[in-house]
Amino acid sequence: MNFVAKPSPGEIRQARADNPKMRERDLAAQLAVSEAELVAAHVGEGATVIEPRVNDLLAGLEAVGEVMALTRNESAVHEKIGIYDNVHPGPHAAMVLGGEIDLRIFPKAWAYGFAVEKRDGDDIRRSLQFFDKAGDAVHKIHLRPSSNLYAFHKLVASLASDAQAQELEIEPAAPVELVPASADGNAVRDRWAAMTDPHEFVGLLRSLKLSRREAVGLVGDDFAWQLDASALHAMFNHAVEQAFPIMCFVGNRGCIQIHSGPIMNVKPMGPWINVMDPTFHLHLRADHVAELWGVRKPTKEGHVTSIEAYDARGELIIQFFGKRKEGEDERSDWRLIAENLPRTPRSSAA
């Protein structure tokens, strides 16, 4: 269905009925609406508006038991099965530090929330879905067969909004502009070399008014080196063959989700690289990776090495590290792999 004007909620529901197997994100794109607007069109017909009160949500989720947590961006989908335990609330940043579900949440980016029930044959699939002001998904929670339905319904009731509207006021996301870096490379190097904790990197970017990609391009080959496109598949292959634990970060404006542990089942399919492990699924669009970098950040114990993939806009898609705890040195097997992946000559534009 093609619409000149934005479709009405009824037209959106009809399009959903006409395309029952199409993914919500793809159908929303086809209809030229946000995914949040697609869900909102079903309010009162399988969807309930809930308030995106992050800390109240996290306080009630552990009782729901085992669920699947999903965080994605334009190019990567990160899914973890587990329990929302070891929760650390906060107004500006909240954390979930469970054995499986590991999140860094930025509540100010959470603008819209829905509890969704969708019939699938004889089953009903239930989820909590949260979106930013542009209507892009920041985090989703899907119930599992063992989830506690009583706790789920109690949580939904506690978060239910008085306003159950089928339309949203969406604020289009500002376009990402690629602006040439104006910072002095020596200033970047000096600040970078002085770090004693990787968490100081955000402060470096803020003070020098740089994007992550700009800083990586300016710092020099001893701290950041560009990798050949083939290095992505090579990294996955080494991780599977050697079974060492990695950390995989996928994030957006409102949430970063982390997997820590080995990966076992990697299955490429078309442009996608898929990890299909028992409690961890990853779906990564390799064709969206415009640049791949090896990055070294100083710590008090030495340094940590990451593999970072960026899209054509310079936006970070995904990061990989060797699994380590605070205060521990980096794993030698991960460092050996990361430092010996195939490289490409640094471009003059970097």
What does the secondary structure layout of this molecule look like, with pairings?
Layout: H1 9-18, H2 24-31, H3 35-40, E1 47-50, H4 54-61, E2 67-72, E3 76-82, E4 87-88, E5 94-97, E6 102-105, E7 112-120, E8 123-131, E9 137-143, H5 149-159, H6 185-193, H7 201-208, H8 212-218, E10 224-227, H9 230-242, E11 246-251, E12 255-261, E13 266-269, E14 272-276, E15 280-285, E16 291-299, E17 302-310, E18 316-322, H10 332-339
Antiparallel strand pairs: 1-7, 2-3, 2-9, 3-15, 4-5, 5-6, 6-12, 7-8, 8-9, 10-16, 11-12, 11-18, 13-14, 14-15, 16-17, 17-18
Helix pairs in contact: 4-5
Q: Note poorly predicted spans.
A: none
Going by CATH, the architecture of the largest domain would be 3-Layer(aba) Sandwich
Tell me the series of helices and strands, N- to C-terminal: HHHEHEEEEEEEEHHHHEHEEEEEEEEH
- CATH superfamily caption of the largest domain: HemS/ChuS/ChuX like domains
In CATH terms, what is the fold-level topology of the largest domain? Heme iron utilization protein-like fold
- Indicate the structural class: alpha+beta
Number of strands: 18
Distance between the terminal alpha carbons, to the nearest Å? Answer: 43 Å
**CATH C-level class of the largest domain:** Alpha Beta
Q: How confident is the prediction overall: mean pLDDT?
A: 92
Count of helices? Answer: 10
The portion of residues assigned to helices is 25-40%
Categorize the overall geometry. globular
| Major sheet attributes | 9 strands, antiparallel
Tell me the Rg in angstroms. Answer: 21 Å
